[in-house]
Amino acid sequence: MTTVYYPKGVCSTKYEIELERGVIKDIRITGGCSGNLRGIRALILGRRAEEIIPILRGTKCGPRSTSCPDQISLALEEALLKEAEA
To answer: Which terminus of the chain has fewer CB atoms gathered within 10 Å of its CB, N or C?
Structure first.
């Protein structure tokens, strides 16, 4: 199941997350810091969303109260909810 999420307060503008029974099969990220986000993608693919959410949650970017990793955790949470409803 694919979920589209529009992050707030960060440089990236869109996440497309594909989950299969709670496992992150793919994440496509539009915008943001390309190298950092490719690194995050490589680290989270194939892992359970429930495992990744608390690792990324609360990460800040400079003076901002959020970051791309924090927003990815929110997107994963939303994707898990949608998958459970399906």
So the answer is: C
* Distance separating alpha carbons of residues 86 and 49, to the nearest angstrom: 17
Query: Taking the CA of residue 75 as centre, how many other CA atoms within 13 Å lie in the half-sphere pointing to its CB?
Result: 28
What is the value of pTM for the model shown?
Answer: 0.95
2-85: which CATH architecture?
Alpha-Beta Complex (3.90)
Token code pair at residue 24: 């992150």
Q: What is the pLDDT of residues 3-57, one digit of tens each?
A: 999 999 999 999 999 999 999 999 999 999 999 999 999 999 999 999 999 999 9
Beta bridge partners, 28, equal 16
